[in-house]
Write a structure and sequence with these properties.
The protein has three domains: 195 residues, FAD/NAD(P)-binding domain (3-Layer(bba) Sandwich); 85 residues, D-Amino Acid Oxidase, Chain A, domain 2, CATH 3.30.9.40; 68 residues, no CATH class. The chain is built from 15 helices and 21 strands. Bound molecules: flavin-adenine dinucleotide.
Length: 436
Amino acid sequence: MEQFDAIVVGGSVSGAPTATWLARKGYKVLMVERDTFPRDTNSTHFIWPRGMSYLNRLGVAGKVLEQTPSFKQLEVSIEGISLHGGVPVQAVKDRFIKLHGNDDGVVDYYSGPRRFYLDKVLLDEARASGVDVREATTVQSLIVEDGQVVGVRGNGPNGALLARARVVVGADGRMSQFAGMVGAEKTVVREKSTFAYYGYFSGIDKPELCIHKRGRFGTAIFPTMEDRHLVLVYGPTAWWSDFSKDPEANFHKTYRYVAPEVADLVAQGKRVEEFKAMGRMVAYHRQTYGKGWVLVGDACSFKDQWTAMGITHSLRDAELVTGYLDRVLKHEVPFEQAMAEYHEVRQADYEDYWGFVCDGAECNPYTREHLEFFHAIQADQSKVDHFMGQVGDTIPFSRAIALDGETRALPDFIKNYDPEARNYFANLYQEAKAAA
Ligand SMILES: Cc1cc2nc3c(=O)[nH]c(=O)nc-3n(C[C@H](O)[C@H](O)[C@H](O)COP(=O)(O)OP(=O)(O)OC[C@H]3O[C@@H](n4cnc5c(N)ncnc54)[C@H](O)[C@@H]3O)c2cc1C
């Protein structure tokens, strides 16, 4: 039987960097991936500065930027209140120092590489770092001795796989079979989520990420590879059955309702690929570790897509867990103690933001107080940047934005704002029709 220091199950954005960091620390690592790369996946792929910093620390940001544009500023427009700014680089540095003890390689730009490209870059980097990468190979069961996971059984192009290791990492995503095999229960679940419907368009001249929110809907557009834009509409899952009756028409109607000026650009562009959709994304945390095993990425925790943070958090997990596993593999700290620390530190880094994402995924209309708040910060660039830092999971929400007491006169649309009118799917389209 083959023997390794660590086996990583899943070779995507959490698995490949986990395997890479371990191999670079000198360990003998096997990474088992069911698919053959390049392959695409049903996920949009916006990566915040914090995530790009992880890619830069791993040494692959340059490869991403060879193919994908990057920007520093973005627009978030809420019920017509436009905020334009960027995540402050000092905040990204502070976050890395707090979590990883240094701010090496931190950057302040974001990018949106396609997953067929990014995932392959990460897999290639693992291989180049000395990881034994087995593609087209599925882990089917675990080898367990005295209640301890000590290896995997699988199947690949060369037949049966049988391998042992001191630690096995589950990085096999949201539908994790690994979690099922080790019995990692979901410890928290938040059912309400968004639906996401997105496509790729050419011929759109719009740099920078642009997010719009109106009522229970949201839209996003950003430039990606091959001179294309990813264009996304999302809303509450409860509306998915209505939306999906005529999704392409509803996509354009919704964009027009939420952001008419961008809808014009989208209408002038040419859709170059089939739309992709996901109707439901239930959020959860799972038990993080057990005897001989630990989870990273979506296998461990999942949350809604609407803030585009899963890739960043997967990269975070990879860097974080490998620091602890290094100490275990060097016999400095018992596995149980190191993994308990990993769980605690990860949770502390996560909890605040995870709750924010789950609340936002309910897609309740903003209240008038929210609008007054956004209107109040709009004229102060440092506050707008602070807000971008919060949404980009760099500045914790516990560091709330303090309003100075100075009040700007409220425009009529805020004075007359009625969130209740935003609550009905049918109403929205009537409104959109009337506006068209
Ligand atoms: C609609 C949608 C939009 C999103 N948009 C964004 C976004 O814009 N930005 C962002 O940062 N995040 C986004 N996310 C989240 C992001 O896609 C995930 O957080 C991220 O892919 C998680 O990475 P992972 O490596 O943990 O899991 P995955 O990417 O799911 O990878 C798991 C890997 O494990 C392999 N595997 C599974 N089972 C086995 C097995 N038995 N044996 C071997 N291999 C196996 C799979 O083939 C796969 O390659 C979005 C998610 C969704 C659903």
